Structures are given as structure tokens and as C-alpha cells.
């Protein structure tokens, strides 16, 4: 995992990492402390999905939780700091991760007398179905779709 933080919430560092699939992972103890949970393990047991918790392989492994679990802890937070934490999460952490390369980019394509828009997003090119039909020939030339359900 790559560290994209630490970020600071009210002066307290909260380590944030990204996994190879782009998921954000947060230091569970720091999140629980920022949200005023007295016992981070109890808070995770009560509010977090097990699939969204990772433990490292260091000498003293640090629990990391995914964004869904951070939101769950924030939602169930007994402290008045939950709203402030949620605002920090959205406006600082998530906003910093939405760089230009992660947004779809529009391009113009002209081929065979057709002008169309294509999107470049997440390393793939996207084309509207109607444009694909125009490129392959008239709709009448395409094979009909059998409306019967496949057994």
C-alpha cells in the first residue's frame, strides 16, 4: 500500500493509504480516537464490516479500515465531532484524491464521415452504443436479438 497522508484532523495525524486497486485505507486507531471512541477494537467489532479491515504484517500490526467502515464509525459516533469529522473527510481527504486523471476525459473522434464523442476513463476508451452501431453499418444489417430468455 502507498501512503497518501498523513492527514491531520484537529491536529491529530490520521494515516491514509491506497491499495493497488485504488481503495482508501485509514488507520483504525487514529479514526476511532478522532471520533472519541474509548475502545477502538470494540468500535470496530460493533460497527465495521470484517471485509473492510486489514491487519499489517509488522511486529505490532496496525489495523486499517476502508472508507465504508470509516463512514460507519462516523455515522454511529456518540460524539458531536462526527459532523466535523465527516466534513474533514469529504473536503480534505476525498477531495485530495480526486485528481484530474481519475475523471473521465471527453475526446472527439471522426471516422468514416461520423463525428462522435468518446470518453477516456480508467485506462479504457468508451463509446456510445449508437455510435458503435453507426460504425458497424446500419441497424438493419445487425443480427436480431432473440427476446426469449436463455435457459
UniProtKB/TrEMBL annotation:
It comes from the Bacteria. InterPro entries: BRO_N_domain. Residues 1-101 form the Bro-N domain. SMART domains: Bro-N. Pfam families: Bro-N (PF02498). This is BRO family, N-terminal domain. It comes from Phytopseudomonas argentinensis.
